[in-house]
Amino acid sequence: MNAKSRVSPRKLKHLKTALALVFAVALPICSQSAKHPLDGLTPPEIWTAYEVLQSSHKVDADTRFPMVQLHEPPKEEVLAWKPAQSMRREAFLVVRQGVQMFEAVVDVNGKKLVSWTEMKGVQPGVPHEEEGEMGDMVKDDPEVQKALKLRGITDPWNVVGGGGPAGYFNTTEEQGRRLFRVMCMKEFGAIQNWSPISGLSILWDDNAKKVVRVVDTGAVPLMKADRNYSAAMTGAARDAGSALGIAQPAGPSFRLSGQQVGWQNWNFHFRVDRREGLVVSNVAYQDSGKLRSILYEGSLSEIFMAYMDGTENWSWTAFFDMGEGGSGFSSSLEAGVDCPDNAVYFDQAYADAHGIPQLKPRAACLFEEPAEAMAWRHDDGTTVESRKTRNLVLRTIGAFDNYDYVCDWIFQQNGVIRVRVGATGLDNISAVKSRTAAEDTTGQDGRYGRFIAENTVGINHDHFFSFRLDFDVDGTANSFVRDKIRMNRLPADNPRKSIWVAEPEIAKTEEQGKARMNMERPENWRIVNPNVKSAVGYPVGYELMPGENAVSLLVPEDYPQKRAGFTDYHIWVTPYRENERYAAGDYPFQSKGGDGLPAWTKANRSIENTDIVLWYTMGFHHVPHSEDWPVMPTVWHEFQLKPVNFFDHNPALDLPK
Ligand SMILES: [Cu+2]
Fold it and tell me: What total number of domains does the chain contain?
């Protein structure tokens, strides 16, 4: 039997729909053939990978594909590549066959299976579609039906269940299983109105497709607060205000070749990856006729969220949104709302859980925006010199169950790159007995969160985002410098008693590269090329400037903390290794802790004057409040990559007056 005849008609229909969509849309942009070695897999390439596995007899109708993504070519190949040259194109696939899991690499140009490896002792992430499947299956369980009946729910029809990765707590019941906790909610009335069925969760083994146990800590009345936020339900909208628009009648002033972007002096490439979301690569700056490299690749590497409720139905809730999920990226952008009117959109090809190519329309957008203030200014008493500036913004939005994360890469005309994450969406809530905080006289209902609506408590939680930043400042040989800002006591004969000085320290090993933000012992952090000196004699560099941030307050022996060991430090620096991409390890689903950065850095490798990767974690503690209801205002957190002795003078000096 040849590969094609093994394809079910249903799958063929999926493919045709996907391809028809690609051809039907002139803009946004999604290419049928790769133009750059770091382009995401195209629909035909995803299809080829699927066919190669079919014809190798490795997969069948029951096979699932938790992850299909570009297998990046070796870095030196990408760096040596020139447009129009041939290039390596490989797909990386995580394949689930019953309880077995495999990693496959397929050469899509040569239509060959490069490798097929069984992975033992680790578990793949779970695509969205599977979370819903188990939600339906638990409703057949008599004990679940009994628990629902105890809550007056006799018709499970409008009960919706969704499974979340159950985490790991080193218990015997976890061993040899693939565990989820299914939480249920009851829909009532109009769309979007639903209540969590609090006090109930179902431990589900997705290998055995069986309920392990039902955890019922007692019925709590459903909350009835109206959670509608759709335009159709929120009533009359306020006046929009007078027209305020952005127009570029001559079109954008960036240049595109596939997903390679040229704008002002910036050059970069990007793709939207199934696991990592936005991957920005080959970031370089045109400086006095020379294209200077800054960053080989930057992307999100993991997202960690832990809820702070100690009760049995909540204490397990700690999630690795990228590694455990893997299909959060991306949400289709709403044209003219999520991005301004002058934005250009890009579609994303991806494989569904059956390995079949699908298309996410408008997965990323790119646009110029006027900056909120001038680039620079000086009033010397007689004349004012001031320069207007604009930014280039690359945006995606990921939807991870209740949360939406906006991820922006903002390129400025002064050589600064800002990376920011906007958190919006819905708070995770618990239905409680007390109507309000005032009625909660014992403080029991509000002990792990805050009332955000009647009978509704938003649970306290953390958000942590780990960014992987593979700097190549003027080449690959880089070092990490910690400028330690230290108090300096002056000699007794000095009228001034103290000043501060900046003392640079080059981190020689991974141990010396671990750093935490601390206002009492401030440090500036930069990546330098020790082999290239600026006009005034310093090594050229880029500084990582943190913004608002947080540290995890979980104790080291707490399993969620062990599994999210990357949150132990804000900064880690590692020597470049192509297989070290994910801060909490490749497979955080039911991981036992210590994977990723803590494991790699144990070797305490040298990080001086070599190809290094900087890992930065940005986080915040979220105490919910009533404005979060029913949908949260977007909250932004950002960091900057700022040139420090990289340019010989202000790179925005030549902005037109
Ligand atoms: Cu939050």
Answer: 3
Answer yes or no: do 74 and 169 share one domain: no
Residue 289 maps to a domain: yes
Residue 348 lies in a domain: yes
The tokens describing 300, both together, are: 């999100």
Alpha-helix residue ranges (DSSP H) falling in 56-99: 75-80
User: What does the alpha-carbon distance between residue 219 and residue 430 come to, in Å, rounded to a whole number?
Assistant: 12
| Domain endpoint, select from 118, 137, 172 | 118
Shared domain for 480 and 422, answered yes or no, is yes
CA of 428 to the centre of ligand 1 (A): 8
Active site residues: 321, 403
- Rounded to an integer, the average pLDDT of 280-300 is 97
Claim to verify: residue 353 and residue 395 sit in the same structural domain: yes
Mean pLDDT of 307-335: 92
Token pair 């809530």 in the structure block, residue:
429
- Of 200, 232, 264, which residue sits at a domain end? 232
Separation of 550 CA from ligand 1 center, angstroms? 13
Q: pLDDT-based confidence at 253, cuts 50/70/90? A: very high
Distance 403 CA to ligand 1 centre (A): 8
Q: Considering only CA atoms, which of 623, 590, 598, 505 is closest in space to residue 174?
A: 590
Q: Are residues 389 and 489 in the same domain?
A: yes
Distance CA 326, CA 329 (A): 8
CATH number of the CATH domain containing 64: 3.10.450.40
The answer to whether the beta carbons of residues 400 and 275 sit under 8 Å apart is no
How far away, in angstroms, is 462 Cα from ligand 1 center? 7
The answer to whether 278 touches 270, Cβ cutoff 8 Å, is yes
In a domain, 438, yes or no: no
Residue 81 φ/ψ, nearest 5 degrees: -70, 140
- What is the end-to-end Cα distance of the chain in Å, rounded? 70
Rounded Cα gap, residues 650 and 644, in angstroms? 10
Interhelix angle 43-55/9-24, nearest 10 degrees: 160
Give the range of the structural domain holding residue 25, as residue numbers without chain letter.
Answer: 9-118
Pair 174, 295 in one domain: no
Contact in structure between 130 and 138 (CB atoms under 8 Å): no
**Ligand 1 centroid vs 267 CA: distance in angstroms?**
34
Tell me if 457 sits within 8 A of 432, measured CB to CB: yes
CA of 229 to the centre of ligand 1 (A): 18
Query: What would the pLDDT profile of 163-174 be if each residue is shown by its tens digit?
Result: 899 999 999 999
- Name the band, by pLDDT with cuts 50, 70 and 90, for residue 191: low
- Strand duo 461-471 + 384-387: pairing: unpaired
Q: Identify whether 239 is part of a domain.
A: no
463 CA distance to ligand 1 centroid (A)? 6
| Centre of ligand 1 from the C-alpha of residue 622, in Å | 5
26 pLDDT band, cuts 50/70/90, is very low
Per-residue pLDDT of 49-95, as tens digits, reads: 999 999 999 999 999 999 999 999 999 999 999 998 999 999 999 99
Whether residues 172 and 310 fall in one domain:
no
Beta bridge partners of 271: 279
| CATH number, domain with residue 289 | 2.70.98.20
User: Is residue 480 located within the same domain as residue 351?
Assistant: yes
Q: Separation of 327 CA from ligand 1 center, angstroms?
A: 20
How many other C-beta atoms lie within 10 A of the C-beta of residue 402?
A: 12
Residue 107 sits in the same domain as residue 211: no
